[in-house]
Amino acid sequence: MSLFESLPVEYEGKRIYDIAYSNDFKGISEFSKEYNKSRSKKICIVSDSKVASYHMDAILDVVKNYYSKVISYIFPEGEPSKNLDTVIKLYTLLIEEKFDRNDVLLALGGGVTGDMCGFAAATYLRGIDFIQVPTSLLADVDSSIGGKTGVDFDKYKNMVGAFHMPRLVYINLSTLDTLDKRQLYSGMGEVVKSALIKDSSFYYWLKEHIKELAGSEKLDSDTLFYMINQCNRIKKAVVENDPHEKTGERALLNFGHTLGHALEKYMNFELLHGECVSIGCILATIISEKKGYLSCEKSSDVIEHIRNNYSLPKLPTDIDIEQIVLNTHNDKKVSGNSIKFILLRDIGDAFICTDVNDADMIDAFKLYMTDFN
User: Fold this and answer.
1) Spatial distance between the Cα atoms of 297 and 312, rounded to a whole number of angstroms
2) Which of 1, 23, 268, 342 is the most exposed place for a label (fewest CB within 10 A)?
3) Mind giving me the DSSP string for 48-101?
């Protein structure tokens, strides 16, 4: 199926799906041949308008001989489409095409598509199979892995969702050739987050290879594979230890996301998710230092690495910091009156902190706007 070794993901000691890596879509044919031996299943390819223009024909070509019916559902690209209205239209199509519990959805696209398609699969007829085929760096390294699905509700990020594991995550590295620099830099926000929470050696590898990663027009497959695979291994380990976010370890994946999501909402999703995560990582690093957990030297190292290499957007000078902090109170990570804020004790050593208050967040944001924006 793959030019590279697949990475199995387990649940309670049982292998539940593979993360497969390739430079084309041909392996999806091999998977489908085995997965649907009777050819009785129907498949619906779910994608946004932009991704579909690049990759829909290729996907249709590799699945057409292995399913009894092949249809597609294309929605307008962008975060504004990640809502229940879009899902309802997908439900309607599936009902009209007589999809049943034996059938399958395939998410072709970035995080918006994967989250929304996965949520539809989790809830249609109380759950049908789905396949993740991520086409963005951000989806490759984070959102396609782990079974979290969801949609935004009234501009609140991922407030409606479900846990639903895919049958396969298929990463075609060549799809990244269609991304512009901004999308690639956005994905790097989740890459550096992964390193910061669990793997200091990977963080220093990123620093050593930053010219190749951030400066090249086209990355070679081996470098891409190593970077994406390392992120997948980090998330795989966390998800396997805490698949439904019960023990708390999975919350570590939210490093940079508390204020990142709040900023994303405040900016009406005009900034990319990974851009907001990168800024959120800097803010969380500042708080880690100010509260005495992270050394000044390590804090400066992280902040300068993110600032200097990932082309962060400049925030408006009249930004309402207090409103952004207020947005965190509606975050899904809030538990009772406390928020699970992820901080760093060291590079590669994240932990859950419940004593980060509004003043801490406001002070960090003010410092960011003064010194780093």
Assistant:
1) 22
2) 268
3) EHHHHHHHHHHHHHHHTTSSSEEEEEEE-SSGGG-SHHHHHHHHHHHHHTT--T
Residue type, 45: I
pLDDT tens digits for range 119-136: 999 999 999 999 999 999
Instruction: Tell if the pTM clears 0.85, that is, is over it.
Output: yes
What gap in Å lies between CA 345 and CA 348, rounded to an integer?
A: 8
Q: 129-134 and 104-109: which strand pairing? A: parallel
For the chain, give percent helix, strand, coil, nearest 5: 55, 20, 25
Q: Quick one: which of 284, 115, 265, 264 has its CA closest to 193?
A: 284
| DSSP 8-state assignment for residue 293 | S
Residues 254-299: tens digit of each pLDDT: 999 999 999 999 999 899 999 999 999 999 999 999 999 999 999 9
Instruction: Give every residue of the chain whose pLDDT is below 70, as ranges.
Output: 1-3, 155, 215-218, 246-247, 331-338
Token pair, residue 365, equals 């944001």
Residues in the chain: 373
Question: Which residues have CB under 8 Å from 184's CB, separation 6+?
Answer: 137, 176
Closest CA to 21 of 1, 35, 37: 1
- Please name every residue paired with 148 in a beta bridge, in sequence order, or none if there are none: 163
Residue that is written with structure tokens 């990475």 in the block: 7
The values of phi and psi at residue 270, to 5°, are: -75, -25
d(CA 166, CA 129): 7
Query: Two tokens at 314?
Result: 């400049």
As a whole number of angstroms, the distance between CA 253 and CA 159 comes to 17
Question: In the structure encoding, which two tokens stand for residue 161, read together?
Answer: 């969702």
